[in-house]
Every structure is written in structure tokens, then in C-alpha cells.
Fold this protein.
Amino acid sequence: MLDLRQHIAAAKQASLAAATLDTRIKDQALLAMADAIGASRAELQAANAEDLAAAARAGLAAPLRDRLALTDKVLDAMADGLRELAAQPDPVGEISELRRRPNGLLVGRMRIPLGVIAIIYESRPNVTVDAAALCLKAGNAAVLRGGSEAFHSNQALGRLMGDVLERLGLPPSLVTVIPTPERGAIAELLQLDDLIDLVIPRGGKELIRFVAERSRIPVIRHFEGVCHTYLDATADPSIAAPVVVNAKAQRPATCNATETLLIHADALDRCLLPVVEALVAAGVELRACERTRQALRERGFVSNQVVAAEPSDFGREFLDNILAVKIVADYAEAVAHIQAHGSSHTEAIITSDHATAMRFIRDIGSSTVIVNASTRFADGQQLGLGAEIGISTTKLHAFGPMGARELTTLKFVVFGEGQTRL
Amino acid sequence: MLDLRQHIAAAKQASLAAATLDTRIKDQALLAMADAIGASRAELQAANAEDLAAAARAGLAAPLRDRLALTDKVLDAMADGLRELAAQPDPVGEISELRRRPNGLLVGRMRIPLGVIAIIYESRPNVTVDAAALCLKAGNAAVLRGGSEAFHSNQALGRLMGDVLERLGLPPSLVTVIPTPERGAIAELLQLDDLIDLVIPRGGKELIRFVAERSRIPVIRHFEGVCHTYLDATADPSIAAPVVVNAKAQRPATCNATETLLIHADALDRCLLPVVEALVAAGVELRACERTRQALRERGFVSNQVVAAEPSDFGREFLDNILAVKIVADYAEAVAHIQAHGSSHTEAIITSDHATAMRFIRDIGSSTVIVNASTRFADGQQLGLGAEIGISTTKLHAFGPMGARELTTLKFVVFGEGQTRL
């Protein structure tokens, strides 16, 4: 039987060493992993072929099998990602806010790793390398548990990374791929709160709920992305139309795609037709409120892609080429609608009015708030974090896209000259 | 029957208003609360008298009754604390790291409140005001649940704060004191993860465990403070002796008091006698390793305050005038001992060597790491945070003493000019 605790205890021990590794050595390991992926293509694809064959036997749908495949293109992208990460700054070790207290103590904060981070994910085996690399960059040990359908691929990638670490004289337990496909191992892992500091589930709603409900360890959750784009009274139609189409239709199945369009009543004359025409041309189905349909009829617009919205269409994550549309009387109604139906993920306003833009930035509590651009920018790469380990929709520790820095914390450092407390 | 959910839903609603309150208005409320405490002394003390009488009838020990008492001095300190907090900077609204992306998007982070924070605490009623004020300063709604023995005092303080908020036109639900002393209400509260963003338990180990085990809401925990002070080979005895005495004996029952003294073997000749003599003179009992006792015998030091350490004395939180003492062969053994026996709270090094000081700061992963000063400085006021809502010994979200800023998070803000994603 697998002694899971022993594996994780080794990861914990390795994390103590990782916390003080020089940047140069961590980046050297990332580059060596990139090279090893290039050099081990044949072995990786042989292991992957076992998973693909099993998936075919099990009758897995074609899109799921596509996600599983370690093609040359996927392997190259993994290696490129490692090289990009190596080029980014090391978040660990920075001392900030160093200030002198009245008694002469110098007090500051130093950025340090979290320790051991477990990532639990679904089919794509590239997550195995991406997540391990981000953890390593931030000085953490990674414990990885992918989908059972990618078991052989993940094992091979884990061996590859372990070999590189060992060759460089680093503890191979910095990257631990759980060596069993059994689901019971996840439940067991989630009990080890004395060894693991953070759990990040990546995948569908059910996986995230499963992890959040069973974990004794803190979990960073990513729930739904019910994103809104709001056309303010002063929205410029030449911005509104392309941005709304991009926000909905560029990749409708992603969590940062817009699901509901809110339109200020005063924007109807200028914006309604150009925006609706562009959406319909892009193949989007509109689930429109009665007032929107009335306004379209008045303007002589007819399309069978415009249907009546059900109340449940507002606040719904379609993950498809479908958009709910609602006319609001004013700014306050738009904000109230978002507060009632949003998921704190990402909201955008299209406006020409500076005061309204700044008010929206302040009033909306979502993890990403955007002025005059597509909600699709709510993504670690796009926002300049480099690689992304996930998107948090809860506020504690991290809120929004998470990069390497979000896998660290701050401790206090104090420099004295013999001070004692009075 | 109390509808707890309805009370907390009102707090949630109030938190939306609180998130965008102007600094001036929040500070005005804090100052008005300070004035109200001065003006309502008689009512507050009458409510407190009910609690004190019940405590006397229940045979509560004198120190516990002392903690419960709202004396003039305690009320003045509460009012002073509110005025100091009003004078501090508002953490909310700051936009930082605003940078332009290659596509022209301007991306930054904005500090925002967490939302609704529940604080569950034990006897001292002053926590009711301190915690509510810190939450309000950071734009959060506070849900407060104190010890049942302080029920009437806490209700009176809650009414006072609610009246001030109402008078200023603010939602009184910004401060919600749970209106029942029943313990079942805590378990119920801990289930409301759709309404409450964070739970902070303040009190003994049992309370913290009770909350952590039952909560569906993220909890910031404060476990034991097993703090170490390490005398390096180059420790200056004129710093070591007063700092170690202060770290242990200034207030031995606090979580930042030193529990174990580690001494480098090369420091014995210069430091052992001055440090041990000062500790014994301060009334401290030393639980010393065999090598320490041998070294004291060789130096002709005899005291019945020096006894043999049990293995369990290392890693133990005495919370008393007792100190475990161990000689280590070198720096590495000191670090390994701290990693094995510490609680990640606070550790200090006494050294004259700069490189060793900087190495210790890097090697020790505790929430506060101190060079040449007393571990007793690990405290929000002392470190310059202003008021403190607790000390986190887990790394997620906050690590170490927590002030108003630790009751906030960062969201992304994005300013565009019509950008769409490619």
C-alpha cells in the first residue's frame, strides 16, 4: 500500500530547502527541465500513448482525448513556458516597507514561500509541468495529483522533473506526482494539514466542490465566472461593438467570457443596433429582456437569434455562444444587478465618462474590474503576471488570477541593537 | 427564535455600502464612538455590573472577573484606541503597481475590503470595540460573538456603536453583536459561508480548535507561540542578558514570550553565566539540557532554579516563568532545532556577525524573525501596525500580527481604450 504521508513528509522536508534556494539555481532547474522535455519527447509520448489507448478503449469523447494528447506542439509550449518563467523575477526574498520605529528597531516585511502546495486537476497533463514550475519558482514544494486518465503521462513528466532536480543536486521531492490513480488518495491528501499549506483545485465545479468540502487544508477556490459587460449612457459604439463581441464570442467556454450584457437606457439610440448586429453576425444567441426586444422591434431589427430571456438566464454561466441582455434605467441599477447576479470574477464598463469609469472601478468588488476593454483580459498572462496557476474568486490570500507571487506570503523581519520591551 | 441568517444578511448588505465609504466618514464614526464611550460610562458600567454579578454568583476566579470589568481605565483605553485608529491611514482604495501592457492596457491593483468578518472571542469585552473598529477602518462589516460571561457588556457596547452609526446615517448592521449567549449560535454562524468572508477566533487553544474544525468559512488561526531565542557564537553578553530576560520574564504568559533558549557552544564562555545569572535573578526556572548543567557546574554556578530538562520541555509553551535551555554545536543545529520544535510564531538571534544575522533572517520561516531584540516585540502595536486584530501563525493571507491592512485584499483594475483579445 502507498504510504502517502511519507511522500508528503519528504515534500515538506524538501520545501525547507527550497525556501532559501538562490534564484539562479531555481531558474537553472527550470531551464534544464525545458531542455529535458525536448530531449525526452519519445519517452513522454510513449507514456502518453498508453493513456490515449486507455481513453480510446474507455470511449472517451474526442475533445477530451485531444486535451490528453502530448503532441509536439504541446510539449514545445510546455518547454517555452518553462523558459519564460525562468526569465521572470523571483518573488522570494524581497524585503519591503523597512521602517524605523521610535525605539530604533528597523521593521520590515520579507516575501517567503508558502511551503508545500498541492494542486489537484483534471485531464490536461501540461498542468503537471506548469504547476510544478510555478511552485518551484516561488520556492515551494509541489504535490501534484492529475486526472486518472492522464496517469502514465503525469508519472513520466514527474520522473523527468525529478531526474533534473536530482542531477542538479536538489531534492527530487520538490516535485511529487502522487504515484497512484486511486481517487481515495485525494481524500487522504486533504487530511494532511500538518504537512500541506495550500490546496489549489483546477477543473470543473464538481472537482472544486469535492476538494473544498473535504479539505482540512486551506483551499483557494475558483467558482463560476458570471461576467458582465455594462454599456454606460456615454458608451462609444465603435468601442462597444467589437469589445462586447470579443468578450462573448472569442472563446465562449472560458470563465472570463461575458455572460450578461447590461445596457443603460440612454445608450440605446447609439449602441443597441451596432452591438446587436455585431453579436448576431458573430453567431451569438441573445436572451433578451422584454424591453430590449421592444427596442429592437421599434428599430425594425428582426433575427431568430434573439429570444426572450428567462429570469434564470441572468446570473447563469452559459459557457456557450449565448448572451443574456438587459436594459437598465441607470448606473445604480447596473451595479445592483451585478451585485445580485455576478460571481465576483470580472466585470467591464464601456463608457466615455471619466467620473463614471472611476466610480465603477470603486463600486464593483469583483476580482478584475475593467474599463473599455474585453472581460477576456482577466487572465494571468494578459495582466502581466506571467504564468498563472489559477483564478481565485474568493478574497482571502489572493483574488483574481494568481501567478508566482501569489504562492508566497510576507513575514516580519526586525533588526535591533539590544532593544527590550517596556 | 433568533434568525441568525437574517442578521448576517443585513451585515452583508451593510458591507457593500462600507466598501466605498470615504475615509473621512469612517474616521468620523470612530471618533464619535470614542466620544460616546466617554458619555455613556454609567450605562456601560451598569450593563457590566450585571455580568460581574453573574460571574461572582458562578464563582468565576478573580483574574477572570478582572478581565471582565469595564473600569474607567478600560473604557478610557478603548476610547483612546478608537482615536488612534482614526488617525491612521485608510488601507482601502490605494491603487498600486499600475503598469502599461504591450497592448496599451493599464493594469494595476486596488486594495479593497474583505466584506463580512466574524470575530469569535472570549472574556474581555474591550475586544468588542477594538475588533469592530478595525473592521470598520478597513471598510468591512463586523460580526462579533464574545464570551457568554460578557454578554450584557457586549450588548451594551454593540448598541452604543449601532446608535453612533445610525446617527451618522450609516447602516447599523456594520457592527452586529450576536444577540444571544447560546453556544449553538457559533456553530450556526460558522456555516454561513455565503455571507461571511473570514472568521477570526481570538482566545485559548480550545476555542480556536472548535472554530477551525466546524467552520465552512476560511479561518485565520493562531496556534501556540513556542518562541526561541538563539545566542550565536558571537553574541554580545551585554545585549544577550537583558534581551533574554525581557523575552522570557517581562510577561511570561503571552504568546511571544521566549520558551526555549539555544546557546552556541562557542558562546558559553562569554554568555552562559551572565545570561543564567540574570534569568535566575528574575525568578525564572531553567529546564536545562545535560550539557548546560555540566557547563554551569564547571563554572561553579549553583541554583535550585536550574533543573534537568525533559525531552518534552523542548517545543513546549510554558506560558510561565520557565525556560528550556539547550546548548547546540553550531548554527545549523540551532536552525534544525527551531524547525523541529518551533511553532512558526517568532524567533530571535543574538549575534554580532552580520552574515549570520542575514542568514538567520532568511533561514527561519517564522512569522516574525528578530535580530538582537526581544521576541516580545512580535505585536501589532510594537511593529507599527497600529491596533492588532490577532496574530496569524498560518501563512495564508496573513502571517504574523494583523492590522487593518490585513483585513483587506487586492483586486485587479484595468483601464483600456477598446482593446480586444487576439
Q: What stands out?
A: Residues 4-221+401-413 of chain B form a domain with the Aldehyde Dehydrogenase; Chain A, domain 1 fold (CATH 3.40.605.10). Chain B has a mean pLDDT of 95. Chain B touches chain A through 65 residues (CB under 8 Å). The radius of gyration of chain B is 25 Å.
